[in-house]
Amino acid sequence: MERKVCYNNNRGVAMKIKRSMLIVALIALFIGCYAMMNKHYDELARYPHTLNEQQRELVLHHLNTDEINTLISWKIEPKEFLPYIEVDGFVLENTLWYDEMANTTKEKVSKEFIVAFINKYKEQMNFNELQYLLANYSYNELIRFFDEGDLYQKSARLIPNPSDIYTMIANRRTLYTYEPKDLVSIGSLPHSSIVPKAYDILVKKEVLEPLQQLCKAAEVIDDQPCGGMRVVAGYLSYEDQVMLYEQALEEYDAEELSKYWDAPGHSEYQLGYSLILLPNEIQPKVNHKEQEKTEAKEELGREQEAWLKENAYKYGFIIRYPLGQEDITGKEHQPFALRYVGKELAKTIYEQDIALEKADLG
Questions:
Q1: Is 70 exceeded by the pLDDT of residue 111?
Q2: How far is residue 157's CA from residue 169's CA, in Å, rounded to a whole number?
Q3: Among 54, 77, 311, 323, which is most buried by a count of CB atoms within 10 Å?
Q4: In Å, what is the CA distance from 356 to each residue of 31, 207, 298, 320, 341?
């Protein structure tokens, strides 16, 4: 009986040893199979685009598993990321930005510059605005602005597409040192610039012919060129604005000045679509009293103001800061400050008697 118990015990121990050995063998087999599978696993098997062998090697060499998963889930095309994958500092998540910049830029720059620029300044831009920023501002302007900010409103962001004819400069937006394309001289039209030692006045090319037509039509006021008015401001560069603004601050406080004029980079006169007409001084006749001259000036000024209000829209212009709209425009009434918006919108604004801010620009 004792021998039988001993035999059963030995048999049980042997079975346990066999089971243990089987488990160990299975684990070893599993580990081996896993290692083999892992060795031959193709991380790019799910990538939806075709890569040649050289491109595959580049991807596997430069991207880790998480980045490859991003590449697959975002379905990034080879032409979008491969040109930059070997550039120092390359970030896969910025690929679409790199590609957009390369396809938009008007200046010839290296891939290294593109990667460095996007990596550093991406957070200060909106992807949907990138193409407009690159089309309207130079890299020097963008870098200087992103590094230094706006001198007159620290939190301001760049207006991405200032070339749009309907552009308005909202709060916390700036043109910085933007200069529009296609600026032309107003030529022989009566003018005298508010900018010292500036003998010419520029406007956007599309504004010139309508302005010439307006001035010609205005001759009905008093048979003088441009109805006895002259252009004193058109496009004003950022530098000219700084000079005029700083000079004005010597006479007026900033709050009072803001009712009539904007800080540099925040003025619509930088767009090339705005201008100021100023009534000419009437030459007094012999023996006329000073009071009579003043009354004559005021009477003609009222005629010019009334004519512009009723006729400027016919040529695509609006009174930019109309009477009764001060709370909307943020500016005092300026009857001789015009803005070109095209005939269709100008007519609508005239008929509805509204400010540009209230117009449907859709």
A1: yes
A2: 11
A3: 311
A4: 73, 17, 28, 7, 9
- 273-316 pLDDT, tens digit each: 999 999 886 333 333 333 344 555 677 789 999 999 999 999 99
Supply angle C-alpha 352, 354, 356, rounded to 5.
125
Q: Which residue from 360, 335, 328, 337 is spatially nearest to 347, judged by alpha carbons?
A: 360
Residues 252 and 143 in one domain: no
Give dist(CA 97, CA 104) in Å, integer. 10
Count of structural domains, the chain = 3
Q: How many CB atoms lie under 10 A from the CB of residue 232?
A: 17
Q: Which of 131, 161, 191 is the last residue of a domain?
A: 161
Q: Is the per-residue pLDDT at 139 higher than 70?
A: yes
Sequence-ordered strand ranges (E) for 90-245: 157-158, 173-174, 183-185, 202-204, 229-233
C-beta separation of 220 from 259 below 8 A: no
Same-domain pairing of 105 and 131? yes
Instruction: Looking at the structure, tell me whether residues 202 and 348 fall in a common domain.
Output: yes
In the predicted model, what is the mean pLDDT of the chain? 88
Residues 35, 59, single domain; the answer is no
Task: Give yes or no: residues 90 and 35 share one domain.
Answer: no
- What mean pLDDT comes out for the span 33-49? 68
Please report the beta strands in the chain, taking only residues with DSSP state E, as ranges in sequence order: 157-158, 173-174, 183-185, 202-204, 229-233, 274-279, 317-321, 334-340
Give the CATH number, domain containing residue 219. 3.30.1380.10
Q: Find the helix or strand (DSSP H, E) in which 322 lies.
A: none
| Residue whose C-alpha is closest to residue 314's, from 351, 347, 352, 267 | 347
Is residue 60 situated within a structural domain? Answer: yes
Q: Pick the range with the lowest mean pLDDT from 2-11, 95-104, 172-181.
A: 2-11
The whole domain housing 206 covers: 183-358
d(CA 208, CA 212): 6
When pLDDT is cut at 50, 70 and 90, the band that residue 106 belongs to is confident
Exposure on the CB side of residue 165, measured as CA atoms within 13 A: 16
Alpha-carbon distance values, 312 to 58, 147, 153, 190, 284 (Å): 63, 42, 33, 17, 28
pTM exceeds 0.85: no
Per-residue pLDDT at 170: 84
In angstroms, what CA-CA distances link 127 with 38, 83, 143? 38, 20, 17
